[in-house]
UniProtKB/TrEMBL annotation, chain A:
<feature type="domain" description="ABC transmembrane type-2">
    <location>
        <begin position="128"/>
        <end position="370"/>
    </location>
</feature>
<dbReference type="GO" id="GO:0140359">
    <property type="term" value="F:ABC-type transporter activity"/>
</dbReference>
<keyword id="KW-0813">Transport</keyword>
<dbReference type="GO" id="GO:0005886">
    <property type="term" value="C:plasma membrane"/>
</dbReference>
<dbReference type="InterPro" id="IPR047817">
    <property type="entry name" value="ABC2_TM_bact-type"/>
</dbReference>
<feature type="transmembrane region" description="Helical">
    <location>
        <begin position="261"/>
        <end position="281"/>
    </location>
</feature>
<protein>
    <submittedName>
        <fullName>ABC transporter permease</fullName>
    </submittedName>
</protein>
<feature type="transmembrane region" description="Helical">
    <location>
        <begin position="288"/>
        <end position="307"/>
    </location>
</feature>
<dbReference type="Pfam" id="PF12698">
    <property type="entry name" value="ABC2_membrane_3"/>
</dbReference>
TrEMBL record, chain B:
<dbReference type="InterPro" id="IPR050763">
    <property type="entry name" value="ABC_transporter_ATP-binding"/>
</dbReference>
<protein>
    <submittedName>
        <fullName>ABC transporter ATP-binding protein</fullName>
    </submittedName>
</protein>
<dbReference type="InterPro" id="IPR017871">
    <property type="entry name" value="ABC_transporter-like_CS"/>
</dbReference>
<dbReference type="GO" id="GO:0016887">
    <property type="term" value="F:ATP hydrolysis activity"/>
</dbReference>
<keyword id="KW-0813">Transport</keyword>
<keyword id="KW-0547">Nucleotide-binding</keyword>
<comment type="similarity">
    <text>Belongs to the ABC transporter superfamily.</text>
</comment>
<dbReference type="InterPro" id="IPR027417">
    <property type="entry name" value="P-loop_NTPase"/>
</dbReference>
<keyword id="KW-0536">Nodulation</keyword>
Length: 371, 307
């Protein structure tokens, strides 16, 4: 037991000797939390829209005017024809082009229907999707205006369904509310996994690992002694992140704070286990860095931090079965925003605990083999 | 019972043998030297003895404990100083020593008498980070850390490699003093001149032990006649002597060449005549007593005729 204490004391002494690292370990993730939550945003503003008006009538003018004076769109002007429209898209002058065909007004009045064309630059698929959504909504709005006007001519009840949306758990559709609980745990992976792997591989590099191996320090004492400082630093970071999320970003914290901490500790142990496993596989810090970085990016991109996991292909969803970040982000969002209780997230708890135990067992088995 | 007993031990790294079928024993209280060039397998042998590597074949006991079965008990009983400086460079001298004392369940105070003579030289720098010490000071700190838990057997892997001549001498004086207190010490070195400071030595080459004896006795195995030869043109001299009919081997040793001659051939006069015929000037030839290096070279060529 005492030897664990001496290991921890030694780690703390070393950390105090390296104040720059300590500061980076705390400051860099916090910066990331702030930047990611502020900068990454799905709201699309200032879309450049150009119009090809083949009709030049009151109706076509009314439709075009609906796109003006909106935050989301910026009118760049009229284009004479399709060819110029394509050029504008190609040159990047316009994000979307609204093409109004000739006889737009006449067809609407005589036939009761007509069509308009939207050309979208879809290199950024999600941006194009959102732009399309906005534009469609405006056209639909225009459409109902027309119907309302013609209703006077044909009296009687026109059956109509009104859809009223209510957004639960994130009523204002705030992107920050969605991001903060996720980023909070992603940061722990950085400190717990990457930094701990590098720390242990460094002991290998400078030969102190060998020196420790000829002492009576037992394997579990080494592992626990190494883990404690990283779990503590991770929890400090988690606390700062939680406070920032609550008070700077106004993210609701509906569920139990204690439950959040239970999961934070569990997740940190898992991360240190992962770092330990990487350190037994890598011979030097470069190798450890590349392996950790590879896993980190994979975990983050598949985790549902940015894009919903349900829409990923089946193989990616299978990969996600062993993605600890996916589970912990689910927990973070559900507990913080919905107020989920332990019973609601017990499936995630089981998965994370299983992975943590698995990683630690695998790491200590590998550790034995390399000695 | 002997302090270290090695029986037919072998270790290979992915089929390349590093130590092959080595047997050796070191008596309690002995200062035993393992002499051999780089790559002879000294470090691999050491790592097996201090429980860092598992032998492929054979067995060994240190302080009466089997290096495989009793490795836990053994770790408390051996002190190991690896060839490369392996302490925490970002911790101070005192912190390093204190850390290694505590993990062995002791304190600096308790065993201070063991390291006192060495540590007094380090004490002025005790708050300095270990990484900022000079080479000689690093070695002293590493030795202190290997001694602080009162080991029964001390393993020093090339402790003087990369250390200046004065520090080397000091280091060997320290080892002798420790040895006088009864500490069994196994020390490896690539330097032949350090062999004479050991009680007994073993020559090691390509994973095998060539000979084990006292430094004085080992030179008596050198049966052939040996001459030191010098002339104005050393390069031409070594070339001519290696071609000479009476020569068995010829190596450069500082300003002289050491020439071994075949039995019944190569008297001083015969060599002199041969060199005069080859137009050498300022010729000097003395018969000399073989040193440890001569013996090692001879043993090496016996086992490897092509070398």
């Amino acid at each position: 037991m005492n030897r664990i204490r001496y290991m921890v004391e030694k780690e703390i002494q070393q950390l105090r000797r390296n104040p720059v690292l300590l500061r980076i370990m705390i400051a860099a993730p916090i910066m990331q939390l702030i930047l990611l939550s502020y900068a990454a945003n799905y709201e699309v503003k200032n879309l450049n829209i150009a119009v090809v008006d083949g009709d030049h009538t009151t109706y076509s003018q009314r439709l075009v005017s609906k796109f003006r004076y909106l935050d989301n769109f910026k009118m760049t002007g009229y284009l004479p024809g399709d060819k110029q429209a394509r050029q504008a898209l190609l040159a990047g002058d316009a994000d979307l082009v609204l093409v109004i065909p000739p006889h737009f007004e006449r067809d609407l009045e005589k036939e009761g229907n007509t069509s308009v064309q939207l050309l979208l630059n879809a290199i950024d698929g999600s941006k194009a999707g959102i732009a399309n959504g906005y534009a469609t909504a405006i056209v639909r709005d225009f459409n109902s205006d027309i119907i309302a006007e013609t209703k006077v001519v044909t009296p009687g009840v026109v059956p109509q369904l009104d859809i009223e949306n209510q957004y639960w758990y994130n009523p204002k559709l705030e992107y920050k509310t969605f991001m903060v609980p996720g980023v909070l745990f992603e940061l722990l992976l950085l400190v717990g996994g990457l930094v701990s792997a590098l720390n242990i591989v460094r002991e290998k590099e400078i030969g102190t690992m060998e020196q420790l191996n000829v002492t009576p320090i037992r394997k579990h004492e080494f592992i626990i002694g190494k883990s404690i400082p990283f779990v503590v630093i991770g929890l400090v970071l988690f606390t700062i992140g939680l406070l920032l999320g609550r008070f700077l970003f106004q993210v609701p914290l509906v569920g139990s704070v204690a439950l959040m901490y239970v999961f934070a500790v569990l997740f940190l142990i898992l991360c240190v286990g992962l770092g330990l496993l990487i350190s037994t596989l890598a011979e030097n810090q470069q190798q450890a860095l590349f392996v950790s970085f590879f896993l980190l990016v994979l975990f983050i991109l598949l985790s549902g931090l940015f894009a919903s996991t349900e829409n990923m292909p089946v193989w990616a969803q299978w990969l996600n079965v062993i993605n600890p970040l996916k589970y912990i982000i689910e927990v973070g969002r559900n507990v913080m925003l919905k107020g989920s209780t332990f019973a609601d997230v017990s499936r995630q708890f089981g998965a994370l605990a299983g992975m943590a135990i698995g990683l630690l067992l695998l790491a200590s088995w590998r550790y034995r083999k390399t000695v | 019972m002997d302090a270290i007993i090695i029986e037919n031990i072998s270790k290979a790294y992915s089929k390349i043998p590093a130590v092959s079928d080595v047997s050796l024993s070191v008596r309690p209280g002995e200062l035993f030297g393992l002499i051999g060039p780089d790559g002879a397998g000294k470090t691999t042998l050491f790592k097996m003895l201090v429980t860092l590597l598992l032998p492929d074949k054979g067995r060994a006991t240190v302080a009466g404990r089997d290096v495989v079965k009793d490795y836990k008990a053994l770790r408390q009983l051996v002190g190991y100083m690896p060839g490369r400086f392996s302490l925490y460079p970002d911790l101070s001298v005192e912190e390093n020593l204190s850390f290694f004392a505590t993990v062995f369940g002791t304190t600096i105070k308790e065993n201070y008498h063991l390291i006192q003579e060495i540590y007094v030289q380090l004490e002025p720098f005790k708050n300095r980070r270990a990484g900022q010490l000079s080479g000689g000071m690093k070695q002293k700190l590493a030795l202190c850390c290997a001694l602080i838990h009162k080991p029964e057997v001390l393993f020093l892997d090339e402790p003087t490699t990369g250390v200046d001549a004065v520090s080397r001498k000091e280091f060997w004086d320290m080892l002798r003093k420790l040895n006088e207190r009864g500490l069994t010490t196994l020390v490896s070195t690539p330097y032949m001149d350090e062999a004479s400071r050991c009680d007994r030595i073993a020559f090691m080459q390509t994973g095998k032990i060539l000979a084990v004896d006292q430094p004085v006795a080992i030179t008596s195995r050198f049966k052939k006649r040996l001459y030191a030869v010098r002339a104005a043109d050393t390069y031409q001299l070594i070339h001519d002597l290696r071609e000479a009919p009476f020569t068995e081997s010829c190596y450069a040793f500082g300003e002289f060449l050491h020439l071994t001659v075949k039995s019944n051939e190569g008297s001083e006069q015969q060599i002199g005549r041969f060199l005069q015929e080859k137009n050498h000037r300022n010729i000097e030839i003395h018969a000399i007593q073989p040193g440890i290096e001569d013996t090692f070279m001879a043993l090496m060529t016996q086992t490897q005729p092509t070398a």
